[in-house]
Amino acid sequence: MSIFFEIHQDLPRGGPGENSQTRKALSMLADLPSRPRILDIGCGPGMQTIELAKQTDGTITAVDNHVPFLEVLRQRAQGEGLADRITILQASMFDMEFEKGTIDLIWSEGAIYIIGFEKGIRDWRPFLKKGGAIAVTELSWIKENPPAEVKSFWNKEYPAMNGMEDNRRIIRRAGYEEVGHFVLPESSWWENYYQPMEKRIGDLRQKYVKDETIKKELDGTQQEIEMYRKYSDWYGYVFYVMQVR
To answer: Which residues contact 117 (CB under 8 A, 6 or more apart)?
Structure first.
């Protein structure tokens, strides 16, 4: 895991996304209270946390289990003058303790895969108030019958990956009303994530030139980037927005 965090250290985001897409998903929730209580799960370095604070008058609890990410967020929040509205909490998404029925909005960009899409939206639902909402991004097949190479890659790397319609059915089975969904554009992958990551991989190859174990890890990460470069028409991150009625 150490090389994983070294690869991701100081990247603008912990996964694909961009502020315009955060705003787009947030705009779908027209009936949020004027000062919502927001829970950002798996916040990473917190680019979307800062954007949520800028776009609402609410308070945000940002949760992650990796302290260096939280320190980046803390510095960003202080620099933006938002530290008084963002509470930073080191915790696992598997073991969060919040009072039931107290959260207006749960947010999770690029992180729900850790707990699993269905388990996440089911386990987190009790935290929501009546009428509360969840907005998450999840890696999903966006076309049927993908080529064998990319299908094999993701069957190994993320076997729980579903198609969009499968995830929409999961949302309904979990007792939510779907507000909407949309596929993140390719810019959400490249600008704040894969482009700086490729540079980082190059730097780490120089740093660990004699370490074959780390070289294999870097090769695997580069392979993921190449899969998206070749097959972005077939899969992507999808923003799913849902609400408890």
So the answer is: 136, 138, 160, 162, 167, 170
Distance CA 186, CA 17 (A): 9
Q: Report the amino acid identity of residue 66.
A: H
Maximal C-alpha separation, the chain: 57
Measured distance CA(123)–CA(57) in Å, rounded: 26
Give residue-wise pLDDT tens across range 69-104. 999 999 999 999 999 999 999 999 999 999 999 999
Q: How are beta strands 86-90 and 103-108 bridged, if at all?
A: unpaired
Reported as a single tens digit per residue, the pLDDT across 117-129 is 999 999 999 999 9
In three-state form (DSSP H/G/I as H, E/B as E, the rest C), the secondary structure along 36-69 is: CEEEEECCCCCHHHHHHHHHCCCEEEEEECCHHH
d(Cα 227, Cα 220) in Å, to the nearest integer? 11
CATH code for the part of the protein at 15-186+233-243 = 3.40.50.150
Burial classification of residue 223, based on how many CB atoms lie within 10 Å of its CB (0-12 exposed, 13-18 middle, 19 or more buried): exposed
Report domain extents, the chain.
15-186+233-243
* Amino acid at site 203: D
Q: Of the candidates 2, 12, 5, which has an alpha carbon nearest to the alpha carbon of residue 76?
A: 12
Residue type, 218: L
At position 166, the amino acid (one-letter code) is D
Backbone φ and ψ of 87, nearest 5°: -95, 125
Structure tokens that stand for 125 in this block: 């639902």
Residue 141 DSSP SS3: strand
Closest CA to 241 of 162, 173, 165, 181: 181
Residue carrying structure tokens 């980046």: 72
Q: What are phi and psi of 81, to 5 degrees?
A: 70, 30
Q: Considering only CA atoms, which of 129, 126, 124 is closest in space to residue 111? A: 124
Structure tokens at 28: 């779908």
